[in-house]
Design goal:
about 120 residues, transcription regulation, Helix-turn-helix domain-containing protein, HTH_HxlR, single chain
């Protein structure tokens, strides 16, 4: 359980995540994954950073700032730092993200074959 009482586990992300190859992007490259991490409740910066290992601290901070600017997240000071949570507007992305993830899982093989053909042609 974290300092805010959130004990829900963070969502698992496949290292070869279909969302990393899908040609549909919501916000920045990391926006959808951050939205999924915040779905169950507030998270601190460090918790997000540890879970989204490939992202640099700078890019995570920039993405969270952009998400807050767009009204998708809200930053709240806590005892020894800051935590982030989804706003009602940010929560509206959850259904869209699930549809994109479903599409990616259903079409990953075909998408991968098409991309492989494209790299062979170049």
């Amino acid at each position: 359980m974290n300092a805010t009482g959130t004990s829900a586990p963070l969502p698992p992300f496949d290292p070869i995540c279909p969302s990393s190859v899908v040609p549909v992007q919501i916000g920045g490259k990391w926006t959808a994954m951050i939205v999924l991490c915040l779905e169950a409740g507030p998270r601190r910066f460090g918790e997000l950073r540890r879970h989204l290992r490939p992202i640099s601290a700078k890019v995570l901070a920039e993405t969270l700032d952009a998400m807050e600017r767009d009204g998708l997240t809200h930053r709240r000071p806590v005892d020894d730092g800051v935590e982030y949570h989804l706003t009602p507007l940010g929560r509206t992305l959850l259904g869209l993200i699930e549809h994109v993830r479903t599409w990616a899982r259903a079409n990953l093989d075909e998408l991968s074959r098409a991309r492989a053909r494209g790299t062979m042609a170049g």
